[in-house]
Amino acid sequence: MSREELKLDKNDFELLRKQIYRMCGLTISEGKEYLIQHRFKALYKSRNCRSWGEFYKLLVSGDIHFKEEAISAISTHETSFFRDNHPFTSIRNKVLPELLKNRRPGGKIKIWCAASSTGQEPYSLSMLIHEWTRTAGGGKLSPADFSIMATDISGPVIERAKEGLFSNLEKSRGLPSGYDKYFEKNGNSWQVDSAVKSLVTFKKFNLLDSFRSLGQFDFVMCRNVLIYFDDPTKIDIVHRIHDMLPDKGYLMLGATETLAGHTDRFTTEHMGAVILYRKMRGIK
User: Fold this and answer.
1) Positions of the chain with pLDDT lower than 50, given as ranges
2) What digits encode the pLDDT tens for the residues 242-254?
């Protein structure tokens, strides 16, 4: 296939980016024709499309499998263990002690990792919980007192995350010293320890859908996700997260994401370079 055959004209670009927005809320900016061409190239070829108009017709058809493949292709799945490090330091030193303090009698501490990609973030959190309950939790909690729901819009990505298998490169990216003990060699890959996996439940989920099926959470990690949505969609998601948190529950966003000037439903707590958003008491 020649470069000319893959060229995306302005009309087809407009149709495709509007359909992407309808399917998953992602905003493709003006001038990002190259992004659609690059992300959809393999899918375009696999379906033997002869034009982007033909590709668009498939995208708006009743072919659910094709739509899921397209959503997975256009979504960003960049991740690593303990990504950016500082957020996990703040979770260890601030969030976990506060969650312990405000724990409901007899109840589990429930955490949601939104847009969890191939699983490194929720598994990092599970490893951190295992370490914290053993060394700093004062014997008041065990890992079994926590549950982590990890969601992503891509079905294939979720299935891969469930396996908990990572290459040497994936395992080494970001993993702190001393955390190798949570992996076992499996052929040419590394398998996450069963105790780490036991805290995490994976679920395919679109952030545009109702949150009712997910339940309530004490802490929500929604890092490096909102930057892909327009402001109305972003605030709608944040307000629905607010509704599922208890008073003083925490929300963590990515380093480049902010709620400043967008909502007054959270108060901010600074931990070095990390900003934590805490639900204000009594705000509905």
Assistant:
1) 1-3
2) 999 999 999 999 9
User: How crowded is residue 177: how many other Cβ atoms within 10 Å of its Cβ?
Assistant: 5
DSSP letters of 47-104? TT-SSHHHHHHHHTSS-HHHHHHHHHHHS-----TTTTSHHHHHIIIIIHHHHHHTPP
What is the dotted CATH code of the domain comprising 3-74? 1.10.155
Q: What's the pLDDT score for residue 282?
A: 58
Q: What strand order describes the sheet that includes 189-192?
A: 165-166, 189-192, 183-186
The pTM of this model reads 0.87
Rounded Cα gap, residues 255 and 275, in angstroms: 8
Which residue carries 């001393």 as its tokens? 178
The half-sphere exposure of 162 on its side-chain side, counting CA atoms within 13 A, is 12
- What is the pairing mode between strands 183-186 and 274-279? unpaired
Helix (H) or strand (E) holding 135: helix 120-135
Distances 164 to 20, 120, 157 between C-alpha atoms, Å: 29, 9, 11
Four-residue CA torsion sign, 22, 152, 224, 226: positive
pLDDT tens digits for range 38-97: 999 999 999 999 999 999 999 999 888 898 889 888 887 779 999 999 999 999 999 999
- The CATH number assigned to the domain with range 86-279 reads 3.40.50.150
Place of tokens 């439940």: 201
- 5 sits in which H/E element: helix 3-6
Q: What percent of the chain has pLDDT over 90?
A: 73
All CATH 1.10.155 domain ranges of the chain, comma separated, are 3-74
pLDDT at 1: 46
Q: DSSP letter for 143, please.
A: G
Q: Where in the chain is the domain with CATH 3.40.50.150?
A: 86-279
